Amino acid sequence: MDPTASADYSYLRKLVFGLSQNVLDPAHDYLFESRLSALLRNQGMTRIGELVHHLRAQKNPLLEHAVAEAMTIKETSFFRDGHPFEVLRRELLPRLIEARRSWRTLRLWCAACSTGQEVYSLAMLLLDRSASLAGWNIRVEGTDISNQAIERARAGLYNRIEIDRGLAARHVLRYFEGQGEAWMVKPALRSLCHFRQANICGPRLPFSRASDRFDVILLRNVMLYFSQEHRRALLTGIHSLLSPDGVLILGSSEQPADLSLWTPVLSGGACYFKPREPS
Ligand SMILES: C[S@@+](CC[C@H](N)C(=O)[O-])C[C@H]1O[C@@H](n2cnc3c(N)ncnc32)[C@H](O)[C@@H]1O
Questions:
Q1: Alpha carbon of 106 to those of 47, 98, 134: distances in Å?
Q2: What's the mean pLDDT in 26-49?
Q3: From ligand 1's centre to the CA of 74, what distance in Å?
Q4: Mean pLDDT, the chain, as a whole number?
Q5: Cα(57)–Cα(60) distance, rounded to whole angstroms?
Q6: 77 located within any domain
Q7: In angstroms, what is the span from residue 131 Cα to ligand 1's centroid?
């Protein structure tokens, strides 16, 4: 590779790591071209070199953030991987609902929710039980580093391909209304879901211990992009935000490096983690 291009990619990898803590593999440098093509067009640029020259010449936090955002992988779908949602439906939510019967409050958080399908999937599981949750205070929080992903999540508008990936017909009919070729989340589902942009590897997590703790936290398919050091710090912070009887669900290929804070539980083809008292 020509040394200038190699230096440009190295600059961009460092920039992305500095802002989102995503570690990009130099073997995948070719991805910069496709992932940054829309951003280059919007900036009236044609080459990565121009972008890097511009970023080096003057501080532009908005553009830097847009680069980091464009480089994150936003792959997601409704009820992704099936098993964790089945375990939530069958085992975890009934147990938590029983335990919270006198508080009548449930708090759930998808810590890297991309375009919102994971958040709406959790909310559908809860609304499916609306008969037993009437009058409860329920919040499903969704955060992601990408502003664009959060805007899409808030809009709650999904195309036919996105709807076909993971949604049963009964859920489409009950919780979505057709809008031309697309489907819009109905108000009852939307009212449980709250979205905001946040970096989960920043100096502070987007929620503090002082507010109520969470009953369920989903941190799925994002830790694999972080360094070991950031994974460890993030899981320590997440641990402090979970209720003692709450659960953490990671992606199917992810697990905490340090099991001193977590008890893994295998159930129904999925694995979830219960917080342990720090020793
Ligand atoms: C592969 S998607 C996973 C989405 C969803 N959790 C799922 O499993 O379907 C990873 C998401 O993590 C987000 N992300 C990456 N780094 C992040 C960070 N430092 N803070 C918050 N979100 C981040 C990306 O923008 C992307 O939307």
A1: 49, 11, 12
A2: 95
A3: 6
A4: 95
A5: 9
A6: no
A7: 33
Side-by-side strand order, sheet with 193-197: 193-197, 137-144, 105-110, 214-219, 242-250, 270-275, 262-267
The response to whether residue 22 sits with its C-beta less than 6 Å from ligand 1 reads yes
Q: Which of 145, 229, 235, 252 to mutate to test the pocket of ligand 1 (most atoms within 8 A of CB)?
A: 145
Are 243 and 128 members of one domain? yes
The answer to whether residues 96 and 159 belong to one domain is yes
- Asked if residues 145 and 241 have their Cβ atoms less than 8 Å apart, the reply is no
Distance of CA 222 from the midpoint of ligand 1 (Å): 5
> What pLDDT does residue 211 have?
67
Question: Do 59 and 131 reside in the same domain of the chain?
Answer: no
Domain containing 142 equals 83-275
Question: Could you tell me if 148 and 248 lie in one domain?
Answer: yes
Tell me the whole-structure pTM to 2 decimals: 0.95
* Distance between Cα 22 and ligand 1 center (Å): 10
| In-domain check, residue 75 | no
* pLDDT tens digit sequence for 141-184: 999 999 999 999 999 999 999 999 999 999 999 999 999 999 99
Strands (E), 44-198: 105-110, 137-144, 157-158, 176-179, 182-185, 193-197
Question: ∠ CA 200-104-194 to the nearest 5 degrees?
Answer: 35
Q: What is the pLDDT of residues 55-87, one digit of tens each?
A: 999 989 999 999 999 999 999 999 999 999 999
Amino acid at 213: R
The residue whose CA has the least distance to atom 3 of ligand 1 is: 221
Verify whether ligand 1 is closer than 6 Å to residue 72 (CB atom).
yes
Instruction: Tally the domains of the chain.
Output: 2
Q: Is the CB of 13 under 6 A from ligand 1?
A: no
- Between 267 and 277, residue with greater pLDDT: 267
